[in-house]
Amino acid sequence: xxxxxxxxxxxxxxxxxxxxxxxxxxxxxxxxxxxxxxxxxxxxxxxxxxxxxxxxxxxxxxxxxxxxxxxxxxxxxxxxxxxxxxxxxxxxxxxxxxxxxxxxxxxxxxxxxxxxxxxxxxxxxxxxxxxxxxxxxxxxxxxxxxxxxxxxxxxxxxxxxxxxxxxxxxxxxxxxxxxxxxxxxxxxxxxxxxxxxxxxxxxxxxxxxxxxxxxxxxxxxxxxxxxxxxxxxxxxxxxxxxxxxxxxxxxxxxxxxxxxxxxxxxxxxxxxxxxxxxxxxxxxxxxxxxxxxxxxxxxxxxxxxxxxxxxxxxxxxxxxxxxxxxx
Length: 327
Ligand code: PMV
Description:
The chain is of the alpha+beta class. It has two domains: 2-179, Ribosomal Protein S5, domain 2, CATH 3.30.230; 183-318, 2-Layer Sandwich (Alpha-Beta Plaits). The protein has nine helices and twelve strands. The chain has helices at 80-96, 117-133, 139-154, 160-167, 200-214, 216-238, 241-257, 263-274, 298-310, and strands at residues 3-14, 25-40, 46-52, 59-64, 70-73, 101-107, 170-174, 177-181, 188-193, 279-283, 290-295, 314-318. The strands form two sheets. Strands 1, 2, 3, 4, 5, 6, 7 and 8 form an eight-stranded mixed beta sheet that branches. Helix 1 (80-96) runs parallel beside helix 2, helix 3 packs antiparallel against helix 4 (160-167) and helix 5 (200-214) packs across helix 6 (216-238). The chain is globular and about 55 Å long. It starts with a strand and ends in a 9-residue tail after the last strand. The structure holds (3R)-3-hydroxy-3-methyl-5-(phosphonooxy)pentanoic acid (PMV).
């Protein structure tokens, strides 16, 4: 008997970077997924196949030992997510000794695009191996394990990605605490990938250097983002999408002030606004990765996405997903 797990990707609607300084952030799981299938196998190691972000990256095959060492990789340069898979396998072995298995991972978005692919891959592998082992995992234990994988691979990790991909929904997250928010039903998002990877650790360090250099001005930008997040919560809960759009535009301006937007991301943000977005901003750490546009009308969102595609970027039309990890 095999296991099949579906995990949503995520966006940050508001509050990235300020979250590192203790302010809340609002994230949303979206209807883009990582799928993980696992089947018990005869060997003494795990065989892993990953396919992420359509044709661009192709398929990567690897063998991983139960202790989490990668033994053979078909295309070493393409296997960034393999570090997460290998670490997740090692952690599962420590926690509940799953049987060796064939693990197949498919994801709709490219890795390092700021959409939580790494956390979704980790969550999917852990949940699938737990299911093969007959191990009952609570959601909270799963999100803890996902965070441990992120800490192991990246050296640092917030709770935003592990919590959002595990629980789903639209969440207000401060440190490890989180609260589910209501979300208007007509909210549609266009997510546009700038074509460059976003490296969270590097961007967090760059922002820290800027804060050192500009002192209280930088602190005031962080406080402004923190205040803005509270207003975003209010706009979401009252279902006021026009107001939400206005706030996302201001959030983009504040993120630009922190130096995390790029020429491509600005180009996308302006194109989304011209195409009728109620608001648009960088999402996640920036420096690359994605921008999001907010819409209240699916067909307008589709037209905007086609425009972004025509500009040479990859755009996805999606909605918040109430579901987290599903087995
Ligand atoms: O790019 P992402 O999705 O990893 O988002 C990073 C969000 C930051 O606030 C920049 C960092 C963090 O750990 O909260």
